[in-house]
Amino acid sequence: MNDVAKQVPTGGVTPHLTIGDGKASDAIAFYVAAFGAEERGRMLADDGSRLMHAHILINGSSVMLNDDFPEYNGGPASLPASVTLHLQVDNADAWWNRAVAAGAIIRFPLDNQFWGDRYGQVTDPFGHVWSIGAPIPA
């Protein structure tokens, strides 16, 4: 087992994102800028260019990602895309503003919701939907 694999926690559920067009490294840079991600490690594929595996932490939770390998799975277009990644944070406005400044596209505007959270959704440049929520400030 390599050092990157040892860092992924056991138990729970860890999202694993496949990024198309060889842009997994760009996705990591975006997640650092948009969500304050911390890169824990990465491994290149044997071709020396595509990212086979990476591990980042966002808001204390693990996210794994890799470049697309269409020769194995048919590419991202063939995969279901009905997932929203939720970030429950301390300050929704701060996280929201950082994500939008980094290039996220507003999908569902940030606003106070009836269930008691300040909540909204953005789409990252790689097609993944992120929801951001925090309790409405008193």
From TrEMBL:
Q: Which residues form the VOC domain?
A: 13-135
Please name one Pfam family that this protein belongs to: Glyoxalase
Which domain of life, per UniProt?
Bacteria
Q: Which InterPro entries match?
A: Glyas_Bleomycin-R_OHBP_Dase, Glyas_Fos-R_dOase_dom, VOC_core
Q: Which CDD domains match?
A: VOC_like
Identify this protein by name: VOC family protein
- Species the sequence originates in: Sphingobium algorifonticola
